[in-house]
Automatic annotation (TrEMBL):
Keywords: Cytoplasm, Elongation factor, GTP-binding, Nucleotide-binding, Protein biosynthesis. Gene3D superfamilies: 1.10.10.2770, P-loop containing nucleotide triphosphate hydrolases, Translation factors, Winged helix-like DNA-binding domain superfamily/Winged helix DNA-binding domain. GO terms for molecular function: translation elongation factor activity. Residues 1-171 form the Tr-type G domain. It comes from Gemmata algarum. The gene is selB. It comes from the Bacteria. PROSITE patterns: G_TR_1, G_TR_2. PANTHER family: ELONGATION FACTOR TU, MITOCHONDRIAL, ELONGATION FACTOR TU-RELATED. Transmembrane segments: none annotated. This is Selenocysteine-specific elongation factor.
Length: 639
């Protein structure tokens, strides 16, 4: 069986619910208030088998006060049945519902002229002409108009046949998809617990699967599917195009509400900023202005939002613009998902459009480069959308799975798509840890490389005699990037490209050479030799002043060059050890303190065969680097 979802649309009291009952035998009005008032208030559900097609039917309310319920019910429908009463013709919600279906990008539908038994043939023809004028230019422009009567049975068989013929033309996406089920209802079944229902808009789910429950407040939770039901029959699996009732294990009923979603773990991400392509219908009466407060209807959710127009100040009727929606509550959406916006008082539909960035950051208005990238997100080419997604991901990059949500890539195509872009040099893979690789736009990598090289250039300019610099301190100047692992990886990339020289501890620009004169380098060599010979009782820096001659003012820098090159270690500003002596000192102290309760300064002095003049700063140095700590008069090993 092929599964599709049909949604009704039309003005109040035009017979939508009665027509569904005539088609299916199912009364969609389930609430006591609906029975008492004789009007549909909330969405109702039925099903109909038409040969090889199984239709799930969502019946929506037609009253203007319940348009938000109609919008929730229209989520995920494959085809629409526009219902117009022959004795009433086109009415306000006929127009509004049709406009909503167009904004939601519904592509298939039929028109049912109900209550045809109440009027004469001439009236039917006049109403038919009004309908043709209404649907001109829409997906219903060439749809048949079937005259029906739920009371007499007129046209019901013809409508079934027309629906069967239409279903045969409906094209659904093929290939693997990830599950999404926007929740439109929740209730408790005795002995089973919480059950949620919704139309499956993509993917499939089976009993026992683990799903991610997005709660509409920015948080989510993993939940297990205890059981599944499709139109009253238990099933082991449900898929796209079906209505589903999902029994969730361990979920309290009071925590579930319309607007939440179930999805494949890791697929969706909640966001309070969404970038969109915003359209105002040509026959609309109100333009959408910058900073306008609106109600966003997306999936089964309704959220207050503020419109920020990016490339204009106003979107007039018949036009479109790029915008960001700043939301009061987070939503979970995907690239290309249609939405509708209504005015803040919920009196009229203003427009709608498609999501371009499901999770966005604020874009400055009329920022040319950013707007150009946003326009690329509307491309038909997945490669173009992927590169725009990478550009916006910035320094944080993205993973291949993100492309399904953020760029509309089909899951089975993500691997080849990414591999092709990497081979072409249009994406840069950055490995941060085992099994964790980010994909970053080349522009962002180039920007980071420039910043690292620029930081080194400034340090070299400030310290022209220092051969290289502490790698950690260099990258600390770029901590605003927010990802040290990424900075380290890009630095390694610069080293491999031979633009930077160094190792895990110290780095320098490859084109930098310390500006030591011949005499300064000879003096440095003498200093290093003297400290190597001096062991734990080295000479003081001032002892070299006489040898420095005209380089006396640069003596401190020369010592720092010797430290940077790894020959000396700075203990204090007046006390340096050779690198070999400093390593031997740490070895002896570690060995001594490992086997004893601790050691006094005097004992460390004797251990090193030096004097108190050197032993005290040595002990303070060992404390400073974290090898030892002071405990009264003793130094003990830090474990």
């Amino acid at each position: 069986m092929r599964d599709l979802i049909l949604g009704t649309a039309g003005h109040i009291d035009h017979g939508k619910t009665s027509l569904v009952k005539a088609l299916t035998g199912i009364d969609c009005d389930r609430l006591p208030e609906e029975k008492a008032r004789g009007i549909t208030i909330d969405i109702g559900f039925a099903h109909l088998e038409l040969g090889a097609v199984r239709l799930g039917i969502v019946d929506v309310p037609g009253h203007e006060r319940f348009v938000k319920n109609m919008l929730a019910g229209a989520t995920g429908i494959d085809l629409a049945l526009l219902v117009v009463a022959a004795d009433d013709s086109v009415m306000p919600q006929t127009r509004e519902h049709l406009e909503i279906l167009k904004l939601l990008r519904v592509r298939y539908g039929l028109i049912a002229l109900t209550k045809a038994d109440l009027v004469d043939e001439t009236t039917r023809e006049v109403v038919g002409l009004e309908l043709r004028e209404l649907v001109q230019g829409s997906f219903l422009e060439h749809a048949p108009i079937v005259h029906t009567s739920a009371h007499t049975g007129l046209g019901i068989a013809e409508l079934r046949a027309a629906l069967a013929g239409l279903c045969a033309t409906v094209q659904q996406r093929t290939g693997a998809e990830w599950l999404r089920l926007p929740i439109d209802r929740a209730f408790v079944v005795q002995g089973h617990g919480t059950v949620v229902t919704g139309s499956i808009v993509s993917g499939s789910v089976a009993t026992g699967d683990e799903l991610e429950w997005h709660k509409g407040d920015g948080t989510s939770e993993r939940v297990r599917v205890r059981g599944l039901n499709n139109h009253g029959r238990p099933v082991e699996e449900v898929h796209r195009g079906q209505r589903a009732a999902v029994n969730l294990a361990g979920v309290p009923h009071e925590a579930v509400r319309r607007g939440q979603e179930l999805a494949r773990p890791g697929y969706l991400a909640a966001s309070k900023v969404v970038t969109v392509r915003l359209t105002v219908p040509a026959d609309g009466t109100h333009a959408i202005k910058h900073r306008l407060p609106v109600r966003l209807h997306v999936g089964t959710a309704e959220v207050m939002a503020t419109v920020s127009l990016l490339d204009c100040d106003t979107v007039p009727p018949g036009q479109w613009g790029l915008a960001q929606l700043f939301l009061e509550d987070p939503v979970t959406v995907v690239w290309g998902q249609p939405f509708v916006v209504r005015d803040s008082s919920a009196e009229r539909t203003l427009g709608g459009g498609q999501v371009l960035q499901p999770s966005a950051t604020k874009v400055r208005r009329r920022h040319t480069e950013a707007i150009e990238q946003i326009e690329r997100l509307w491309s038909d080419a997945p490669e173009t959308r992927t590169l725009a997604t990478a550009w916006f991901a910035g320094f944080h990059g993205f993973t291949p799975d993100d492309l399904v949500r953020a760029a509309g890539a089909e899951p089975e195509h993500v691997g080849p798509l990414v591999s092709g872009l990497i081979s072409a040099g249009k994406l840069i893979p950055i490995t941060l840890a085992a099994n964790h690789t980010l994909l970053v736009h080349p522009d962002r990598i180039a920007e980071l490389e420039t910043r690292i090289l620029g930081t080194l250039a400034m340090l070299h300019a400030d310290h022209p005699l220092v051969t290289n610099h502490d790698r950690q301190k260099v990258l600390a100047r770029l901590d605003y990037v927010g990802d040290e692992q990424l900075l380290q990886a890009v630095t390694d990339r610069l080293i491999r490209a031979k633009k930077v020289v160094g190792d895990a501890r110290r780095i320098a620009r490859a084109d930098f050479k310390p500006k030591l004169s011949v005499n300064q380098r000879k003096l440095k060599d003498k200093i290093v030799d003297a400290h190597t010979a001096g062991g734990f009782t080295p000479p003081e820096p001032k002892e070299f002043a006489n040898q420095a001659g005209g380089n006396a003012a640069a003596l401190g820098d020369i010592f720092e060059v010797a430290c940077a090159e790894g020959f000396l270690v700075r203990i204090t500003s007046e006390f340096y050890l050779s690198a070999e002596a400093e390593a031997e000192m740490r070895r002896r102290v570690t060995e001594r303190l490992t086997t004893g309760p601790g050691a006094t300064v005097a004992e460390i002095r004797d251990l090193l065969g030096t004097t108190r003049k050197y032993a005290v700063p040595v002990c303070e140095y060992l404390d400073r680097i974290g090898l030892t700590r002071r405990a009264g008069d003793l130094r003990v090993l830090v474990r």
